[in-house]
């Protein structure tokens, strides 16, 4: 707002002078001045408002005595420039608009802006009237802003990401792209438009949800999505933050390469686990064949007994019914053996689902039934009551427990059969389920304890040293932990945990 | 058949295999003693056993250990081994210990009867 008053507002010239003097004296960080440049080249101040002391550190009285006291404060680098500007002001330009740095008597340096007009005075003199503004604060803010702008520019230039400024409602307002080709569309095709006009329909909702979320929580949100570009699938990660009352900054990163690398690593991990599973099952193949042969032998013996009874006319309906019932039971038992093996032998990726680790322990107990007999070892189950379910890959966890159990059996192979005793225990002592596989073997040498889960570490003559490594990678991929410790009495215990799902 | 049926004993830890074998042998007219472990058999069976059908792998005493104990005690009971494992070493040990036959599960009634008859014959012969 500008205010103007006509000269008639003042009742007298004196009153107007008073008014001007008052404003001059009240000016913050500035003072008015009038300086006369005499024909002989000397400068002398004829008016200085009281802000002079605050700006320059000098009392006006000192400047009245010697005008050069002020110009002497100009730092050396700026002095020549100032006098050149003053020379032009006294000459054809008739005005001075120049910034210098003053070194005040207290040592402080101030940025000062001279702004004045020049008019002719008496006897060939010139009168220079104007204001000197202390602009130090403004300069610091400008410098800081310049610094921060330069820094932001540098960050933007370095960012490999696409950036969009959007309204909370989903309109594209601005963008940044290091390489415009990454935009996939020319800017005019999306700027000012709503994302529903730009994005594939199934992406609009997740983005809108993330916008609502960041304004609700004040945090950030991540939207993972993929796009088919020229027949090739590309994966993106959008980080969404809100700022101001209704602005969204959405930073888009192309994560295709890292996703491919991750997928490949995961595939390799699964493949390695599968090969290791095959090897492990190969080691107990004879016992597994035995598990299947037992019910088949019973079925064959029962059916041939029935045949014999029928051909000799001695078959009683009750006996025959009983025989058929037993045959049916053994068929089921053989089926269960195959069903248990099918998962472990399958090439297909199994899915994570809610399951009880007690069931996994039972599965392993069944798989090892014959192996335990052959090895003259006992396995006891100490399973927790009403164990909460975890979300996990059943086959992979069977593999872990089977591996730990076979290691336990190996560890006890040199012991007397009566001492070959192992325990599988489950519990849920916290926000996870824990499985312990305890053996009564010789325990683990202290120097081996820290290396058990390293790749290719083995103490077995024919071992590859991948079993525990794979157990560890399976457990970690489920968010759990695996470790080993020697028991207080004898042997060692291998333990692993699987976290409970968040809702549990 | 006026003769008393020969007593065949079966030693097998798996209850359904044991039951199936007992039925089969009975269907063929034998008297059958069924045992879940070597210990049970050694403690219970008398001298009238014409042949014993034994599983190789059992918890506690194995079939081979049972054979060794019979030999040690001088009990001349013909032994027919049955197994679900394809274990060549066990077969060799069994046969060199005097076993009549070594049958792999699942086996037919004819294989079993042939072995049992052979066992009965050998037990009937004076040594």
Compact description:
With 504 residues, chain A is of the alpha+beta class. Chain A is built from 15 helices and 17 strands.
Overview of this protein structure:
The complex is a heterodimer of chains A (504) and B (127). Helix content of chain A is 44%, strand content 25%. The longest helix of chain A has 29 residues, at 317-345. By secondary structure, chain A is of the alpha+beta class. Chain A has three domains: 7-140, Beta-Lactamase (2-Layer Sandwich), CATH 3.30.450.20; 160-254, Beta-Lactamase; 267-499, Histidine kinase-like ATPase, C-terminal domain (Heat Shock Protein 90). Chain B has a single domain (7-124), classed as Rossmann fold (3-Layer(aba) Sandwich). Chain B has a five-stranded parallel β-sheet with strand order 2-1-3-4-5, sandwiched between helices. In chain B, α1 (15-27) links the parallel β1 (7-11) and β2 (31-35). The longest helix of chain B is centred in the last third of the chain and has 16 residues, at 109-124. The chains are: A alpha+beta (504), B alpha/beta (127).
């Amino acid at each position: 707002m500008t205010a103007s008053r006509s000269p008639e507002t003042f009742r007298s010239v004196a009153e107007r002078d008073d008014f001007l003097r008052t404003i001059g004296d009240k000016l913050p960080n500035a003072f008015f001045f009038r300086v006369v440049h005499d024909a002989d080249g000397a400068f002398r101040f004829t008016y200085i408002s009281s802000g002079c002391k605050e700006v320059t550190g000098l009392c006006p009285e000192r400047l009245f005595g010697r005008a050069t006291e002020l110009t002497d404060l100009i730092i050396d680098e700026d002095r020549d420039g100032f006098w050149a500007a003053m020379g032009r002001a006294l000459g054809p330009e008739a005005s001075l608009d120049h910034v210098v740095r003053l070194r005040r008597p207290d040592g402080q340096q101030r940025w000062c802006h001279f702004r004045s007009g020049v008019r002719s005075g008496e006897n060939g003199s010139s009168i220079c009237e104007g204001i000197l503004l202390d602009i130090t604060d403004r300069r610091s803010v400008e410098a800081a802003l310049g610094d921060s702008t330069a820094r932001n520019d540098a960050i933007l230039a370095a960012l490999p990401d696409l950036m969009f400024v959007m309204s909370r409602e989903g309109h594209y307002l601005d963008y940044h792209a290091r390489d415009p080709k990454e935009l996939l569309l020319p800017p005019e095709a999306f700027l000012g438009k709503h994302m529903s006009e730009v994005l594939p329909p199934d992406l609009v909702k997740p983005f809108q949800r993330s916008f609502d979320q960041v304004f609700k929580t004040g945090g950030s949100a991540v939207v993972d999505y993929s796009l088919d570009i020229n027949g090739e699938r590309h994966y993106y990660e959008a980080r969404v933050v809100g700022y101001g009352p209704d602005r969204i900054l959405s930073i888009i990163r192309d994560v295709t390469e890292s996703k491919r690398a991750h997928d490949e690593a995961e595939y390799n991990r699964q493949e390695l686990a599968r090969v290791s599973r095959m090897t492990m099952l190969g080691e107990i193949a004879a016992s597994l064949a035995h598990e299947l042969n037992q019910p088949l032998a019973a079925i064959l013996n029962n059916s041939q007994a029935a045949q014999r009874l029928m051909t000799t006319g001695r078959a009683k309906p009750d006996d025959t019914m009983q025989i058929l019932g037993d045959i049916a039971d053994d068929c089921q038992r053989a089926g269960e053996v195959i069903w248990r093996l099918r998962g472990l032998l399958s090439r297909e990726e199994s899915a994570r689902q809610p399951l009880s680790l007690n069931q996994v322990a039972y599965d392993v107990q069944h798989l090892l039934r014959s192996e335990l007999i052959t090895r003259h070892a006992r396995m006891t189950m100490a399973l927790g009551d009403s164990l909460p379910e975890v979300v996990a890959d059943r086959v992979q966890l069977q593999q872990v427990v089977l591996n730990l159990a076979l290691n336990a059996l190996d560890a006890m192979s040199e012991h007397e059969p009566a001492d070959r005793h192992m325990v599988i225990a489950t519990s849920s002592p916290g926000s996870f389920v824990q499985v312990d596989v305890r053996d009564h073997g010789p325990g683990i040498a202290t120097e081996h304890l820290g290396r058990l889960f390293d790749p290719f570490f083995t103490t077995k003559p024919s071992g590859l040293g991948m079993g525990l490594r794979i157990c560890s990678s399976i457990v970690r991929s489920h968010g759990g932990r695996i470790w080993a410790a020697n028991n207080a009495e004898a042997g060692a215990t291998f333990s692993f945990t699987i976290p409970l799902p968040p809702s549990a | 058949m006026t003769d008393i049926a020969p007593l065949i004993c079966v030693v097998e830890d798996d209850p359904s295999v044991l039951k199936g074998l007992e039925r089969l042998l009975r269907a063929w007219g034998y008297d059958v003693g069924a045992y879940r472990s070597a210990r049970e058999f050694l403690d219970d069976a008398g001298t009238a056993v014409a042949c014993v059908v034994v599983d190789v792998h059992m918890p506690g005493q194995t079939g081979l250990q049972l054979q060794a104990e019979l030999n040690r005690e001088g009990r001349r009971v013909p032994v027919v081994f049955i197994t679900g494992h394809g274990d060549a070493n066990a077969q060799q040990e069994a046969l060199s210990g005097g076993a009549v036959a070594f049958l792999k599960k699942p086996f037919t009634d004819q294989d079993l009867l042939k072995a049992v008859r052979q066992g009965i014959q050998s037990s009937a012969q004076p040594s």
